[in-house]
Amino acid sequence: MATKYQNFINGKWVDAKSGETFENRNPANWNELIGTFPKSGKEDVDEAVKAARKAYEKWRLVPAPERGDIMKKAGDIMVSRKRELAELMTREMGKVLAETMGDVQEGIDTAYYAFGEGRRLFGKTVPSELRDKFAMAMRVPIGVAGMITPWNFPMAIPTWKIFPALLCGNTVVFKPASDTPATATEFVKILVEAGVPEGAVNIVHGGGGAVGNAITEHPDIDLIGFTGSSDIGKKISASAAGTLKRVSLELGGKNAQIVMDDADLKLALDGVLWGAFGTTGQRCTATSRLLVHEKVYDKFMSDLIERTKQLKLGDGLKKDVEVGPLINEGQRKSVHSYVEIGQKEGAKMLTGGDSATGDGLSDGWFYQPTIFTDVTADMRIAKEEIFGPVLSIIKIKSLEEGIKTLNDSIYGLSSSIYTQDVNNAFKAMRDMEAGISYINGPTIGAECHMPFGGVKETGNGHREGGWAVYEFYSEWKSVYVDFSGKLQRAQIDNY
Ligand code: NAD
Questions:
Q1: Under a CB-based contact definition with an 8 Å cutoff, are residues 370 and 349 in contact?
Q2: Pocket test for ligand 1, best of 22, 227, 279, 329 (most atoms within 8 A of CB)
Q3: Is residue 11 pLDDT above 70, yes or no?
Q4: Residue 88 and which of 139, 243, 469, 482 are 20 to 30 A apart at CA?
Q5: Contacting residues for 24 by C-beta, under 8 A, at least 6 apart
Q6: Best of 236, 284, 456 to mutate for ligand 1, by most ligand atoms within 8 A of CB?
Q7: Is the pLDDT of residue 84 over 70?
Q8: What is the rounded average pLDDT of the residues 31-42?
Q9: Residues taking part in catalysis
């Protein structure tokens, strides 16, 4: 029997007002129904916002270290349930168990970082320009935060937003992707068990149009934390502009890895396999372009093709499986359409190129890891985010050409170079246009205490992760205390 899930609004589990539901199925075996979820709409969002607004008045007054203690408890619960949560996540969205365990661990790390931040949330004191006057700037909460998240990191990404938002004293209305509502629900249950009070966290399930849009337009929501595609990010930016909300957008990528002629090629090969085909290529930081120096090209390519063909596809819960399915039918069609585009554009397909079939693969959205060579920078497969196991390879003659090609993108999330030359490494660190750069590491693998985000159309300048995200979820308030006992006019009485 599939589980019937509900929304969580004002401390109560409730159905959508419409009474309608949607299904969530296992992408590795679509015969398995994970659960049914409320198909919510604007009225449900309104209720959740009302609850969050009311809860905010109490939550903002809870001392930050006490809020931090709740985050710590949430982290402890996640530790005790790590494997069970990871298994649910694999069933729900397909990536292999080692990766879903990592996804939960990212949430745990983020909880513990928030715990520590509860005793920091540093402000600043500065000297006043006037005598007998005190000046300080402190961090205050903002209000009700609307959180809209994608399906590829169903635990990590919600935790990146919700822990810092709550720690700073905001309350939350959370709309997870409709492909991963079960993991999101478990996260909310953990927050409640850890002690987040009634109304401070609410989850409303449903589609981007009906629920997401109601959140971004809502006059009583003060800020939006969004992770998803650049197309939707632009729509959200426009819709939130109507009420001048603060908006953090973490969007798409078209990440590249450079392999120089002086690179440790074995290391570079391990890196690109993990970067391109980990999470079946469905990461914002996935390696989608590989830029290989001509001097090592032939050797590197033959090893890469051989290793790619050996990758084991299947249900991510099974031992030894390295690549799970794509998330759904639409994504498989979209990936395949890019493969057809690549062929029409004249790129050479060396492996893959179709849905994967065979033992254990017939009832899931599996797709063969695919490699194109002879790709030129103007081809669509070199420019657009594919979000699947498709790697486009471009031959380069020099570091300068590699960096120029890497930068030739509307996106700028992650970047990587494999080189053993310190001069190359430092030039790349300086010149690669990206929010994240790896030297001798693949494009994927962020750590929770470092800023995370991108430049250009990958975002709007905010960062998740580490200390940086706390800037987004709090506001600076400047406070002056005049203890002179007389009127002192700044810039007038002192000069
Ligand atoms: P998506 O943009 O389709 O959806 C993301 C979320 O937005 C979902 O919850 C969806 O329901 C909601 N949504 C859709 N339309 C909406 C609307 N009009 N108003 C409000 N909300 C709406 O993305 P996806 O397919 O879930 O995820 C894949 C994308 O996310 C890729 O482009 C990937 O690069 C990106 N991503 C970025 C990061 C990052 O940190 N930069 C991390 C992970 C994923």
A1: yes
A2: 227
A3: yes
A4: 469
A5: 33, 34, 35, 36, 37, 92, 178, 179, 180, 181, 182
A6: 284
A7: yes
A8: 98
A9: 250, 284
User: Is the separation of the CB atoms in 400 and 379 below 8 Å?
Assistant: no
> Which one-letter DSSP state was computed for residue 91?
H
- 2 pLDDT tier (thresholds 50, 70, 90): confident
* DSSP 8-state secondary structure symbol assigned to residue 384: S
pTM above 0.70, yes or no: yes
441-486 residue pLDDT tens = 999 999 999 999 999 999 999 999 999 999 999 999 999 999 999 9
228 in contact with ligand 1, CB cutoff 6 A: yes
Query: pLDDT tens, 337-385?
Result: 999 999 999 999 999 999 999 999 999 999 999 999 999 999 999 999 9
Query: Can you read off the two tokens belonging to residue 308?
Result: 């790619």
Kindly write down the DSSP assignment for every residue of 144-196, as one continuous string: EEEEE--SSSTTHHHHHHHHHHHHTT-EEEEE--TTSHHHHHHHHHHHHHHTP
DSSP annotation of 343 reads H
Tell me the domains of the chain and their CATH numbers: 3-251+459-478 (3.40.605.10), 255-439 (3.40.309.10)
Q: What pLDDT, on the 0 to 100 scale, is given for residue 1? A: 64
Phi, psi of 426 (to 5 degrees): -70, -35
Report whether 306 contacts 369 (CB < 8 A): no
